[in-house]
Amino acid sequence: MHRTLFDTPIVNTVLRAGSVAFLKLRGWTVEGTLPPEARKSVLIAAPHTSNWDLPYTLMVAFVLRLNIYWMGKASLFRWPFGPLMRWLGGIPVDRERSTNLVAASAQALINADGPLQLVVPPEGTRGKTRHWKTGFYFIALQARVPIILAYLDYAQRRSGLGPLIMPTGDVEADMAAIKTFYAPIRDRQADQLEAG
């Protein structure tokens, strides 16, 4: 995997301190810790409905001392922002091409020398959708790593790491348990609607 701001000395320390201060000033609480068995894992990024999700996710990752990589649409990585997005941990995904993203992502997790948490938005888009894609699930299943239920709850201003789920291969049962966890969590758009 490519170098990111999470493994850049000094910058990492400064950005962590800034993230702690910013989130505290904004009234956010960061919850949970990364279990030792989840040094390599897939983190669900849900709900994902706002451009604000990325900066908050990066700040929470600093606070929790994670080493994240995240998947984003390929258009985010066009010039002049491509190098910056990659340094922020981004991995471009071209939705138009049929590549074996699941197998490549699983292999990257297997091959990683150190800790690596791959953040995947299950909606596959920033818009509201009831249908979740299952790519994150099959990445974890193939790599034999746990899925961490990460969240941004804008209504309660809390974020962090929820339960760990080891995929069993029973997609329907595991997805039902995952969706039950996320049911009460409010995205930024829902919070804005209630405030307005």
Strand order within the widest sheet? 1-7-6-2-5-3-4
User: Can you give the helix content as a percent range?
Assistant: 25-40%
Tell me, briefly, the overall form.
globular
What's the total helix number?
7
Contiguous low-pLDDT stretches (5 residues minimum) are 191-196
Write down the Rg.
16 Å
Brief summary of the model shown:
The protein has 196 residues and is of the alpha/beta class. The protein contains seven helices and seven strands, in the order αββαβαβαβαββαα. It has one domain.
Task: Write up what this structure looks like.
- With 196 residues, the chain is α/β, with parallel strands linked by helices.
- It has one domain (5-195).
- Helix content is 37%, strand content 20%.
- A 7-stranded mixed sheet has the order 1-7-6-2-5-3-4, with helices on both faces.
- The longest helix is centred in the first third of the chain and has 15 residues, at 11-25.
- It is globular, with a radius of gyration of 16 Å.
- Residues 191-196 have low confidence and may be disordered.
Main attributes?
seven-stranded mixed sheet, 7 strands, globular, 196 residues, single chain, disordered C terminus, 37% helix, alpha/beta
Helix and strand topology:
Elements: H1 11-25, E1 29-31, E2 40-46, H2 53-63, E3 68-73, H3 82-87, E4 90-93, H4 101-111, E5 116-120, H5 135-143, E6 147-153, E7 158-165, H6 171-182, H7 188-195
Parallel strand pairs: 1-7, 2-5, 2-6, 3-4, 3-5
Antiparallel strand pairs: 6-7
